[in-house]
C-alpha cells in the first residue's frame, strides 16, 4: 500500500508534493520521492526511509518545476533502497505506482528483446519502460499509455509525467484508489482525498478500470474499454476527518472495494513477491514441523476465516486442526495437546471472548499466535507471536476487507506450514503462492460485475428467509454469506454444508425461499449440483455463485448466476467472499437499513 500524488500547478510544486505525501505516509514510509519537469527536462529527488529524509534532501538540493508527481513507498518488489524508490524514470516518462504488477517479469523479458532494461528491482519499472518503448515507436503520450494499460496484470494506481509537456498528467486505476482534485487553475491527483485536502475539496474518484487524461482545468476519463465516461465531482469532507467514504455511499462499500489493495498489501507481508515464495518475517516461537495440533479460536466472521483455514492446514500441511467459537471454547475448558499452537483471529484484537480463550490456552501451556488487524490491541500484546492483517481501519460494522485479509494471511501460513512439515513440494508451494499473487486482479474483475449483483439483490430483498449452501471449503463461505445478510439486511438467513440439506433444511424449501449456492467449479461441484437439483425440484429459487465452467456444468434451472473468473481452487474461498459481500450489501441498501451501523451491533465486542 503506497501513497501517490500529482500536481499540475502554476506555482512551484515540490513543497506541496511533499506536503501531500505527509498525509499519505500512513500508507507506507520506507522511501519517498518526487519528480518534476525543470528547464533541463525530467528530474527527481528520492530518499530511503521516512519522508523527512526526502524533505532534508530537497532543502539542500531543491527541485524546480510547476508540474510533478510524488510517492511514499511500502516495499513489495525490491528492498527499501533509493534505487527502488519511485518515481521511476525511463526515457521521457516518469511514473509513480501503488499496487502490484503481477506479470512484470514477462513484460521485462519482452522489453529486453528490444534493448530496454530496468535499473531497479521493482515491478513498477516495467510499466515505465513499456510506455517508453511505445513513445520511442512514435506514439503520443496518451496513446502510449492506452497501449500499455491492457498489457498490465495486477493492481495499480498509476500517475505518469511526460518530459516536454508540463500541462499533462495521465492516471489509471485498477484495484488501487485514485482521486482527481479540481483547483481554480491547478489540477491534482492523489491516493485519497485526504492527501489533496490542503489544495481542494472538489474531488472526482476514478472507478475500477478507469484512466484519465488530466490537463489544466480538465479531466477526461475513460473506462476499462476506452469509452469516455462521466464521474461525478463532489465536495469532500476529507480535510476534517481522517476516515472518508470516498465516492461510496457507505464505509462497507468502500471497504469491499479496497480489497484488491488490502489483499495485495497483506500478501506482500507474507510472500516474497519477486521470488513468489512464502517468507515469514515473524520470529516463530514454535516449529511448524513439530507442532502436535493447531487450535483456532475466534468469533463471528473471524471464526469463519478459521474454518476455511482448517481445510488448508489439514490438506496442505497435514496438521490436525480444531476450530472453535471462542465463547464456547473458553467455557468448555478443553484439554489441549502438548506442543500445540493456539491461533486466535480477531480484527479488533479486543473481542472479550477471544481474549479469554487466548488466556485459557496460554495458561494451558500452548504456543499463542494472534492474527489481528489492530496491532496494538490487547490480543496482540498478550500473544507470543503476532501475524498482522494489513488492511487499515475497518469502519463498517460488518467485516469485509478484514475477512479476506485474514484468509490471505492464513493461506500463506498454511503454505509455510506445509513446506516446514514436508507435505508440499517447493513447486506445489510455488503454484499456491502464484494463485495468491493473481488473486487481487481477479477480485477487481468481480467488482466490475457489481451492477448485475445489485439486480439480483433487488429480488433477494423481498425474501423473508434465505438459505446459503456450500461444500468443502465453500461451507464456511455459506456461513459467512448468511451472517453478512442477516446482520445488515435483517433478513433471516442460514448457512449449511450442502450435504446436510437432505438432513433437515430441505423441509424449508418452497417457491418463496431463495437458496444461494457458493460453488466455483472444482472436484466437488458435481455433488453440489445434485443438491441444487433437489432444491429446484421443490420450486426453490437458486442463486449460484460460480465461474464460467461451473455455469456450463450447472445447465438450466438456475434463477440467477453470479459469474466469477476461474481461479485456483485454493484461493476460491477468498474470491467468493466478494460476491457474497456485495449481495448482502445491496440487499441491505434496498431494505434501507443502516448498513454501516446495523441495529444492536458494535464493531468491537468487549463484553462477554
Ligand atoms: C461480522 C462481524 C463480527 C466479527 C466478530 C469478531 O461481520 O464483523 O462477527 O467478526 O465480532 O470480531 P473481531 O474480529 O474484532 O474479534
UniProtKB/TrEMBL annotation:
It is found in: Cytoplasm. PROSITE patterns: GATASE_TYPE_2, SIS. Its main location: cytoplasm. CDD domains: GFAT, SIS_GlmS_GlmD_1, SIS_GlmS_GlmD_2. Residues 2-217 form the Glutamine amidotransferase type-2 domain. InterPro entries: GATase_2_dom, GFAT, GFAT_N, GlmS/AgaS_SIS, GlmS/FrlB_SIS, Ntn_hydrolases_N, SIS_dom, SIS_dom_sf. It catalyses: D-fructose 6-phosphate + L-glutamine = D-glucosamine 6-phosphate + L-glutamate. Residues 284-423, 456-598 form the SIS domain. The keyword Transferase applies. It is an enzyme of class 2 (transferase). Its EC number is 2.6.1.16. Transmembrane segments: none annotated. The keyword Repeat applies. PANTHER family: GLUCOSAMINE--FRUCTOSE-6-PHOSPHATE AMINOTRANSFERASE, ISOMERIZING (PTHR10937), GLUTAMINE--FRUCTOSE-6-PHOSPHATE TRANSAMINASE (ISOMERIZING) (PTHR10937:SF0). This is Glutamine--fructose-6-phosphate aminotransferase [isomerizing]. It comes from Pelagibacterium luteolum.
Amino acid at each position: 500500500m503506497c501513497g501517490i500524488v500529482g500536481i499540475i500547478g502554476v506555482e512551484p510544486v515540490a513543497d506541496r508534493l511533499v506536503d501531500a505525501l505527509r498525509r499519505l505516509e500512513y500508507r507506507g514510509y520506507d522511501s519517498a520521492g518526487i519528480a518534476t519537469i525543470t528547464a533541463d527536462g525530467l528530474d527527481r529527488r528520492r530518499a530511503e526511509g521516512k519522508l523527512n529524509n526526502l524533505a532534508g534532501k530537497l532543502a539542500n538540493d531543491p527541485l524546480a518545476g510547476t508540474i510533478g508527481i510524488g510517492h511514499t513507498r511500502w516495499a513489495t518488489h525490491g528492498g527499501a533502497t533509493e534505487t527502488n524508490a519511485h518515481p521511476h524514470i525511463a526515457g521521457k516518462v516518469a511514473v509513480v505506482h501503488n499496487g502490484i504488477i503481477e506479470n512484470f517479469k514477462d513484460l521485462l523479458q519482452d522489453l529486453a528483446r528490444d534493448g530496454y532494461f530496468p535499473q531497479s528491482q521493482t515491478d513498477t519499472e516495467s510499466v515505465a519502460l513499456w510506455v517508453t518503448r511505445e513513445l520511442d515507436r512514435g506514439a503520443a503520450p496518451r496513446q502510449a499509455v492506452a497501449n500499455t494499460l491492457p498489457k498490465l496484470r495486477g493492481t495499480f494506481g498509476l500517475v505518469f509525467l511526460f518530459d516536454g509537456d508540463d500541462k499533462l498528467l495521465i492516471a489509471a486505476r485498477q484495484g488501487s484508489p485514485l482521486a482527481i482534485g479540481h483547483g481554480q487553475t491547478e489540477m491534482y491527483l492523489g491516493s485519497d482525498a485526504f492527501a489533496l485536502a490542503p489544495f481542494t475539496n472538489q474531488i472526482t474518484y476514478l472507478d475500477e478500470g478507469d484512466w484519465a487524461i488530466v490537463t489544466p482545468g480538465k479531466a477526461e476519463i475513460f473506462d476499462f474499454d476506452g469509452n469516455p465516461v462521466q464521474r461525478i465531482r463532489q465536495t469532500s469532507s476529507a480535510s476534517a476527518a481522517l476516515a472518508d467514504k470516498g465516492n461510496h455511499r457507505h464505509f462497507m462499500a468502500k471497504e469491499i472495494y479496497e480489497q484488491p489493495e488490502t489483499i495485495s498489501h497483506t500478501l506482500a507481508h507474507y510472500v516474497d513477491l519477486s521470488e513468489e515464495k512464502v517468507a515469514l518475517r515473524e520470529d516463530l516461537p514454535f516449529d511448524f514441523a513439530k507442532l502436535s495440533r493447531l487450535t483456532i479460536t475466534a468469533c463471528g466472521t473471524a471464526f469463519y476465516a478459521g474454518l476455511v483455514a482448517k481445510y488448508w492446514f489439514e490438506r496442505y500441511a497435514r496438521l490436525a486442526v480444531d476450530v472453535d467459537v471462542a465463547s464456547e471454547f473458553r467455557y468448555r475448558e478443553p484439554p489441549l495437546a502438548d506442543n500445540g499452537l493456539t491461533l486466535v483471529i480477531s480484527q479488533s484484537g479486543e473481542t472479550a471472548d477471544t481474549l479469554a480463550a487466548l488466556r485459557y490456552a496460554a495458561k494451558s501451556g500452548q504456543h499463542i499466535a494472534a492474527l489481528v488487524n489492530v496491532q496494538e490491541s490487547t490480543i496482540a500484546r498478550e500473544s507470543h507471536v503476532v501475524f498482522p492483517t494489513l488492511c487499515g481501519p475497518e469502519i463498517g460494522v460488518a467485516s469485509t476487507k478484514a475477512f479476506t485479509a485474514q484468509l490471505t494471511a492464513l493461506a500463506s501460513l498454511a503454505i509455510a506450514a506445509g513446506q516446514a512439515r514436508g507435505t508440499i513440494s517447493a513447486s506445489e508451494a510455488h503454484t499456491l503462492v502464484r494463485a495468491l499473487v493473481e488473486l487481487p486482479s481477479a477480485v477487481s474483475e468481480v467488482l466490475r460485475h457489481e451492477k448485475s449483483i445489485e439486480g439480483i439483490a433487488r429480488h433477494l430483498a423481498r425474501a423473508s428467509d434465505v438459505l446459503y449452501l456450500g461444500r468443502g471449503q465453500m461451507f464456511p463461505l455459506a456461513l459467512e454469506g448468511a451472517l453478512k445478510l442477516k446482520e445488515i439486511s435483517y433478513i433471516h438467513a442460514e448457512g449449511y454444508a450442502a450435504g446436510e440439506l437432505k438432513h433437515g433444511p430441505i423441509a424449508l424449501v418452497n417457491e418463496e425461499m431463495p437458496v444461494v449456492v457458493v460453488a466455483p467449479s472444482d472436484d466437488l461441484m458435481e455433488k453440489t449440483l445434485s443438491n441444487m437439483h433437489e432444491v429446484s425440484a421443490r420450486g426453490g429459487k437458486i442463486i449460484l455463485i460460480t465461474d464460467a465452467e461451473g455455469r456450463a456444468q450447472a445447465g438450466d434451472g438456475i434463477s440467477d448466476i453470479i459469474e466469477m473468473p476461474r481461479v485456483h481452487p485454493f484461493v476460491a474461498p477468498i474470491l467468493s467472499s466478494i460476491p457474497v459481500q456485495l449481495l448482502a450489501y445491496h440487499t441491505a441498501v434496498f431494505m434501507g437499513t443502516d448498513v454501516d451501523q446495523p441495529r444492536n451491533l458494535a464493531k468491537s465486542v468487549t463484553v462477554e
